[in-house]
Amino acid sequence: MYAVRNWLIGGVFMLALIASPADSRAKDIPDSIDLGSLANLYGKVKFNHAKHIMLVKDCAECHHHTTGTLVQDADCVRCHKNSGATAVVACKGCHEAQPFSAAALREKSKTAYHTDRLGLKGAYHQSCTGCHRRMGGPTGCQDCHARNKRGDAFYSAGAYAQPQAHEEGKLPGN
Amino acid sequence: MKRRDFLKGCIACGAAATLGVSEKAWGIGSFEGYPDGMGVLVDLTRCVGCRSCEAACNKEQQLPAPDAPFDDKRVFEEKRRPTEKAYTVVNRYDTKTGGGPVYRKIQCNHCNEPACLSSCFVNAYTKTKEGAVIYNSKVCVGCRNCMIACPFNVPAYSYSSALNPVVKKCIFCYDTRLKYGKPPACVEVCPQEVLTFGHRNDLLKIGRDRIKEKPDRYVDHIFGEKEVGGTSWLYLAGVNFDQVGFDTTMSNEPILSNVKDFLGIVPMVLTIWPALFTGFHLLATKNKNHTNHEDGHSEQEDHKP
Amino acid sequence: MKRHIANGVKIVDSHYKVAGESKWDLKDKLLLGLTPWQYIIQAVRNPFNWILAVIFAVGLPLIAIRFIFGLASVTNSSYDYPWGLFLCFGLFAMVPLSSSGFMLGTTVEIFGRHDFEPIERLALLNGLLGYLFAVVYLLVDLGQPWRLPYPMVVAYGPVAVLFLVGWHVATYLSVQVCEVSVSFFEWIGFPVGKQGVRKITLGLTVSGIILSTLHQGALGALFNYAPGKVHPLWYSSAFLWLQFFVSSIPGGLCMVIVVSTIVLKTMAWRCDANFLDNLDKLTISLAKGASMGLITYLVIKLMGIAHDNKWEYLATGWGAWYIFEIGMGVILPLILFAYSIRRKIMGLIRFSALLTVFGVVLNRLNIAMITFNWKLAEREIPRWREVIISLTLFSIYLVVWRFILYRLPILYTWKTADERATAKEPARGYVTGGETEPAMAGTYRSRIDERSGIAAQQWP
To answer: Domains in chain A, ordered, with CATH?
Structure first.
């Protein structure tokens, strides 16, 4: 009788262990993130966060020192030697969507640090494609986000391309 | 005499106004740019040649559709320059350093003391306090001296128009954006944030900081900081600038300085020549029968056979 | 024309057909005293007119095309080479050759050398037509030529060198028109105008020198805007404007020699003894002046190279071209002048003058077009349409030259001795054909009589 009870407790315990997530904070980590701030030219990026966690392992590779291994870069250590993880980890928490608006410039002029912080779009691309180039990931524009109709019009491409573009061997001039 | 004085006055006042310093004469004053002037720092180590900036400019300035889509990379096979249909172009340079191709965005550099402005005889160009060098097509006569003067070969001309050919160049999106404190279209669209918009003075600091923090990544020079008197569009690069199409032989003096000596001579000649030649006349003709009323011609007629 | 004269036709050279009797009217003056039929015959017989006809047949439509369809239809419409043949040849090359106006004006009026008078009017006309057609070429080249007056009245950019050029050329054209108007007033019979201009001739001449110095120099200073674009051998940071000014002196003087040679060969019938007898002597004097200009020019060109220490460029391909330009255009003429002036070999003097003219033209073309953008990989060759239009405009220039020289008293002296005899009679204020002339009682009477068919009265 006690053997059955012990087995049951062990089994339930194992199930609970297996079913629970690996990290207690991980209930906030999204597996997939939709990045939609693309000036309406492209469709959303379906970012496979879970896959990147598996590939990259150290959160700090993308999230700087806000999470994962903390401050390493000599230029950052100067001030952030004792800094811990931050509350907001998402890129858009620190990187502005509109880094060059008059308001943003005013804010920048008030601080003596982080004056060269990238905007959100620049941060995504430099971080993502930078690493992709090194690691063999997708680097083309449409590899991560497909152009929509407005994008086609913007780039004078696809349905909006000029007829000459389809001629073979003709070098497009301006 | 009145017209000459007017001309002298015009030259003196015009020069003083353009140089932005009152009453300072030639050779002393120089214009460092308006203190709150904006600029753009172009970091060539970040550019990947996606040409989104060209597309954004095309839309913002309502330029005609291009011959090839803006994502067509075949255009990089030849070196391009700004044209009447494309105020900005990106060129690819295959350097030997093994770091892959370097891409460079070309557009008007919005100089502090623009050569185009200095050479325009109808004052069609204006350097606004936001830093943009803009153009007034309503007074342009089409002499194209600005195209001769621009050391960066930027202005293009709409030769194909018979009735209203005008100069075409990047205007820093002044009418639609800069005037309202917004960044130009190319800056806003660039995915790699190659283009950093801000006050020119702040950009110089940022540029220097980038070089200091990553000395292996950047060549220790901000192109446009001092060249031809300083430009509002500044460049950082990871290879020597002459390898990516920049003219590194440019002097730090604005183009205007090259003609200042001649312009200074003008009032001298206007003043000295009359006395000099009247003097010659008096000295040469004192004892001769020279009058300037009745003709020498009529004297000859009397002697005609 | 020579055939007509040989047949006894009398060409207009005074106000009167026969002294004291019937007067030429404007139509006669325009047709040179020939009947319309005679005029047409001589025009058709002239082989030069056949060449002109061909040029105009091709060129005039092209000029129309330029204005209807824009510059892109006739030029290479280049962004890197904005200035093409119209400006580089028509303006930059023709202006230094037209400096003869102020030079001969100065010689005669300022320095009192009235022995140069036989050639003075030709030189003044050369100056006027050269500048006038430089403006014509400019109007064909400008994007919006109807806006040419803008820098005068609408928008001012006084710091620009071109502003100075524009104002000076406009003012100088007015000065030259006044100076040539003396001949015109003689021809048209308006002595009041002539006297008026003669009164201000000294002032006009001094203005002419001032304006010419400055705008000949300013055309050079225009290229100071592009220090990196003109080849270092041709470019001089400090002296380019001086080199342009000094080279205009032999340019203008030699152009007068060249023009007088052409006149001698093609229209000697129009020249009177005053011109022909003095021409050789004056040509030698002009050649001496040109030689002095040339040697000065040579030295300041070398000084320009020394000043910026550009000697090593002489060893390049461009250097060879430079040596050719200096050699053919400056050194060779100097040697030939030195040889021929002393021995008074007129043919050689005239040939050297032609070489000098080519040298000046080549220099301007080199700076403005050929070595321009020397750092760029591609040279631009002007489109054939540009060449034809330039040739057509030049032909129009020659036609205007010929038109004026045939008629106005430039090469010959207007016979007005009989006019002067009655100049003191009280004015009758007769108005004939729209012009009012003082005095001339006899002339009016004879003219009215001629028109009404009454036999001409004898001259009192």
So the answer is: 22-158 (3.90.10.10)
